[in-house]
Amino acid sequence: MTAPVSTSSVAVPALSPRLLAFALLTVGLALMLAYLVAFDQGALSRSGMYLHELMHDGRHLLGVPCH
C-alpha cells in the first residue's frame, strides 16, 4: 500500500538582499566577538589575556585611571 503524493506547492517568502546583508553582518560580528573572547581567554592563544592587556594599556593612554 502506498501513500498518496501531494502535488501542492508551498510558497516560500523571498529573502530581500537587505535582510540577507543584515543577517550576514550580524553573524559575522557574532563570530568575530566569539573569536576575540576565545583569543583573550587563552583558548586560541598560548599567551592569553592579550586583548585584556591591550585594552588596559589603551585606557592608560587615554588617561583613564583603573587602579
Automatic annotation (TrEMBL):
Pfam family, one: CbtB
Transmembrane segments: 20-39
The protein's name in its UniProt record: Putative cobalt transporter subunit CbtB
Keywords: Membrane, Transmembrane, Transmembrane helix
Keyword Transmembrane among UniProt keywords: yes
InterPro entries xrefs: CbtB_put (IPR012667)
